[in-house]
## 1
Amino acid sequence: MHTPRTDHLLRFDHTAAAAMATTPSSPPSATTMRAVQYDGYGGGAEGLKHVEVPIPEGEVLIKMEAASINPIDWKIQKGMLRLFLPKKFPFIPDKVISMSFPNCGGLAEYAVAPASLTVARPPEVSAAEGASLPAAAGSALQQLKAAGVRFDADADATAAAAGVGPKNVLVTAASGGVGHYAVQLAKLAGLHVTATCGARNLAFVRDGLGADEALDYRTPDGAALRSPSGRRYDAVAHCAPPAPWPVFRDALADAGGVVVDLTPGVAATVRSFLHRVTFSKKRLVPLILIPKEEEMEWLVDMAKQGKLKTTIDSKYPLSRAQEAWAKSMEGHATGKIVVEMGGTE
């Protein structure tokens, strides 16, 4: 039976269409809804189809307002996680943080979620902003925590101020969906932040997000991850495509450091295992995103207070979801790409 809720909710959505929604006070009278799905691996944006499907049932029925597109969405479609995801089609894209609801995606008029993975959305946080928080900001927070960053209750200082944990952090792809949150969170933690991005976003990353130093990744220094100040890093929040380990190794401090990889491939996973068994002081750690209600509540509170801001690259109505998908696949969005269920053409 559907759990009636009338407040605004943030939903930890399945593959990466992190959903912002209002839960209806009673189930809708209609039995079908509009959704976007694909029925096989590959095909990119052209492989998405607009369909009518039955309204799902679950612990909490959510009427969708907006969903954000994340790279993990189309990576699943390309078959990069086919060992773990889905065994049969059609498949409505959803976010890879909980496999409990593999057939109920965020690119639809309604979705379902367990009550434990929904939190209230305050009026200070818009639907588009809220749709961006669960997957992207949640990934950034867990990346930094995996690197040893500790956040206090007020998020204005961490143990780093007392000499515990990393002090110099590098964020790659810092103008992207996860990266732009990682820069802000690292600054909230009181860290010195170096960031990489494209030349057109250098000012945005420095002035808009607060990075102390910014590098154009296309330059020799940017490719080598060399900080303009000569600092080497205690931790790296790696949000960009794979890079050779020697590049990270040489950029890390002599005393050691950790690279937390947002999208690890097979080589990164193998290297991580070798680092563990050899007790290497310079380590690569694949990020395994596990949704936590308390972290989501904390992120929403930071957004409510204006301490964590969401940059929206572009918005699309559900009827143009393919365009949003294609833009994400291009890999040059500044901030988040959002699909609004009630959006106009």
## 2
Amino acid sequence: MNKQLIECVPNISEGRDTVKINTIASVVETVEGVKLLDVDPGKATNRTVITFVGEPENVIEAAFKLIKKAAELIDMSKHTGAHPRFGATDVCPLVPISGITLEETAVFAHKLGERIGKELGIPGYFYEKAAKEAKRKNLANCRSGEYEGLKEKLVNPEWKPDFGPAEFNSNVSKSGCTAISARDFLIAYNINLNTTSTRRANAIAFDIREAGRIKREGNPSTGKKVLDSNGEPVRIPGKLKAVKGIGWYIEEYGIAQISYNLTNISITSMHVAFDETVKAATKRGLRVTGSELIGLIPLKAMLDAGDYFLRKQQRSLGVSEDEKIKIAVKSLGLDDLKPFNPNEKIIEYLLKDNTKKLVDLTVTDFAEETAGESMAQGGGSIAAYVGTLGVSLGTMVANLSAHKAGW
């Protein structure tokens, strides 16, 4: 049986004070068996995405310590930022990585929430797979009204917290509320536009996201809402499934972005979201200048993007993993705003064992190791290496010839 591993991706409502951010993130590393993978702050959103991984019990302990420290250092009554939020630790999703199901992960989410409510006095809601009510499955519903609406929301019987106090006391005034979930892997992905207009960015987000936009009479932006027989607004669906999105202006970059959550990349991939956004922007006279990945991404998503753009270029897919990743980075403009280092953004690269293996050696190192007294490689390894060179030469010929007439 595979070792049980889950990933935790808490989003804290602090993106500007590096001392506070580092202090909060560092408590994760005090728990044995938990690896801190990434700390990704945003100044305009005033929000930091923290990612760590480990066995379930250890991850739950690390998450509890992080939420406790965030509540100590962040005062939500003074918080401002572009991103929707209602707590010092705004959301804390748990994601199954290996050896554990989503349903089993939800049990750990409930365990974490109950402890936060009892020991820290922080109220909160369970969403996604951890939700205990259908209407609470969607994070947007749980977070509606944001921090400013908590005083009324917490005493509303329909929105009684799943854990913690149902009152806006002095403790809650500072800590706010926390949403905890068990969910599949999600990619937080922003696309950059050559405009400062939030309205235009939102218009494109509404074109693309699954929820689309509210149908209106006459003017699509300001017209009267069209209601169904139950008095609910009628919606015009967007282009892509499993996509959430909003438009915003990011002051530190001086541009508007469309901020997407890709909730199921087997349904809508990053590269499809990018290309559809390019089409929608072009129709509105705008230009996509690049994109930004928030947090981490699976290797497969990057390789799939590389393959996609290689096909668009009518090039062979028989290139190295590194080359495919370079193609993906440049095609998506992931380095438009800041350098993109695959070793710091791809989950598998962060988790891999750093022990040097034969396949990791340079040609010089391999030759020197072969000449030494080590028995690690002999005739078999040398023969395999020579065979690999032969296959590489054959692949080179195929790649050079594939696009030529007559082949």
## 3
Amino acid sequence: MGKLAKWLGLQNRSEHAPTGVTPPSRLASGPITARETATVPSAYRAIQILTTSASQLSLDAFRNSEKIIDRPPAIVRRPSLDIPRSEWLEQATMSLAATGNLYLAPNRDSEGQAIDLPILNPHHVAVTQNSETGAISYHYQGRKYTRGQILHCALMRLPGQLTGVGPIQAARNSLTFARDLNKHISGWFDTTGQPAGILSSDQSLSDNQARAYRNTWNGLDADGNKIDRTDNPSGIKVLGRGLEYKPILLNPKDALWLEAQTWTALEIARLFGVPSSLMLVAPEGSSRTYSNVNQEWLAFTRFTLMGYLRPIEEALTELAPRGVTIRFNLEALLRADTMSRYQSYQLATQAGWLNSDEIRTIEGLPNDN
């Protein structure tokens, strides 16, 4: 990851394996893809939080700082003609989170106004630049688009780069470890060769005797075939010749790599900028109160979610009629509960900068008049 990893503060970290537990092999695994990231529970949860937060927001249009109520632009009411606004916002946010890029191919009416904003699959878009003219082109499903035909939003685009860098691309090593850890845990007793127990004897046994006792214990005959259990349906074992069976009992905390899973979940939470309280995981020794959780959510809205919402706002504003600005309504996210909202409304009305009609509009209620 080079300089980008250094700038973002992303470093590799080694975990010490618990006694008797073999760490997952990194030799056979390749770099994680965006699709595979969704199979990592913590990463799926982080992306879901981002997309759900964006999809529940409403869009407002402003002209000269005045909110347009009567007839807002069509792309504010419904950015896509094929899917609801909430799903469009979900897909737009997911495109940015998964790849760091969002590509829109606007369809316009006879007057040149954007009326439909299809979202292109970011994995199928190739961006090129003419070395002589500097013109940027977009290639999608065998068709070439000019810069004027595609609206491109990007996260963390380095100077001189054509595309952005999303969380998955920025910390592919950490996510690859999380994927491999999940696979390792799920296949622990089947693929690691860890025996379920040890069959021992206080007497000397030949190789053939040891093999025969092992097969009998595993329900196999001398030829290695399954023994008919009709007469012994419960699988009762009979020990003789000083034989003793000792199961190998692993601490569930070690067998499931719970500490490593917790660390991985926290690492992914930091990567996506999602509060650990929303990820349902907490650092060891931390305590939560209503106040600090509320501050976490506020910081999430300002410093994480807005990183995804602002490019979408700017793209919609660019496509809106001249003089119109599009903004997300963040009121519901910035105030966590009903009591907080009502208290803020009371302060606003007492200060004289909000009236009852404006408050009812914010709450999605009809005005008194």
